[in-house]
Amino acid sequence: MNTQYSPDGVWWWDGSTWRPTFPRRPTFPPGRALRRWQVVLLVIVGLELLVLGLGWVALVFVELGPLD
Hints:
three-stranded antiparallel β-sheet; rod-shaped; 12% strand; 68 residues; mainly alpha; single chain; 51% helix; 3 strands
């Protein structure tokens, strides 16, 4: 049997339908991917707030000096 490939080489003809030559990447349900990004964004925002808060504490400490 002579296998026929598409001009771009991504598909091959099995005699009744075109099939991909390589397995496709697994896809995640939309909800799972969205939750993953939400967690990443929450962690980033939390770290930014922590750094910002520590910066203000350091600034006040430098301006006022050590508290006796």
